[in-house]
Amino acid sequence: MPAAVFGALARLGLIALMTYDGNSVFPLVYVQAVGCLIMGFGLRLKEPLGQFYAPFYTALTTGFCGSLTTFSGWQLDIFQAWINVDEFKRSGFRNVTHSLQFVDGVGISAITLSLSLASLAVGYKVASVLAPRVDPKLHIRRMTRYSISLLAVLTYAATFVTYFLLPARYRHQATGALIFSFPGALTRYLLSIGLNQRFNALPAGTLAANALGTALLAAFHVLQSTPHPPSPNTCSLLQGLIDGYCGCLTTVSTFAAEVRDLRSWKACRYVLLSWLLGQAMILLIFGSSIWTGHASKQITCTFQ
């Protein structure tokens, strides 16, 4: 539970830190790179981490890294580049069919995928250097394990306290997302253990989680962009669902790890299918709403 909460909080913090005027790199790429770097570290040290405390490996990789990185946010960035949501003035080959920004969308796709795979490899390599220095007999006592379990429950319970006690302006910025972070990560975990073992061709669980999360994000984004938006409280909840539930339901770190483990043809097929499904979900839900006049490119919601 706390791993998903801290992963979502780290993602929101990194995005806020790297969002500024004149930035040369889109903020979400830092999130994907850091998450995949830690994921590579965890994959290499799976055995000692499991011996130290069995749930710690799952918490680090599935919980923290899976919630830190986000597939749905990546797909939304790509689609917003296609439609030039910020209405930048461009010319030449970069302007394809009015507002469709071909080069920008391809760049976000390629850079994110390349950097995620590279960060995963770097993390794995660094952990390989440190692995001989890790004591395989290191473990924690039973009482400490019970204390960690209690702390995990209290940490998630605290997200509800912060949502209602902190000022309302924090709800759409962070506290709303923290409430929905654990349900999103849990849904992804259940889909993975339920579907990945049933299909040998592709990791169906992660594919389903990423597709479902992207579809939900598109739907919530439509609700935030209607001509007559909902109340500020509802808008904050929608933003919490986008950043928390959808952000933690979808993952790039696990996706990159699975791509690395698949053979070349299967890896290419998995990447292409995941990317196409993500874009198709946003196109059918968010894109169709824009072009029929039921939603605008920018969100119309107002927050407290």
Give a topology summary:
Elements: H1 2-18, H2 28-44, H3 46-52, H4 54-68, H5 71-82, H6 102-130, H7 142-165, H8 171-195, H9 204-224, H10 232-249, H11 253-261, H12 264-291
Describe the structure.
- This protein is mainly alpha-helical and about 300 residues long.
- The protein has 12 helices and no strands.
- Residues about 95-100 have low confidence and may be disordered.
Using brief descriptors, characterize the structure shown.
mainly alpha
Brief account:
The chain is mainly alpha-helical.
Mean pLDDT: 88
- Proportion of helical residues: over 70%
- Give a count of the beta strands, DSSP E runs of length 2 or more: 0
Strand content: under 5%
Distance between termini? 28 Å
Shape: globular
In the predicted model, the low-confidence regions spanning at least 5 consecutive residues are: 94-100
Number of helices: 12
Q: N-to-C SSE series?
A: HHHHHHHHHHHH
Q: Which oligomeric form is depicted?
A: single chain
Which structural class matches the secondary elements?
mainly alpha
What kind of sheet is the major sheet? none
Rg on CA atoms, Å = 20 Å
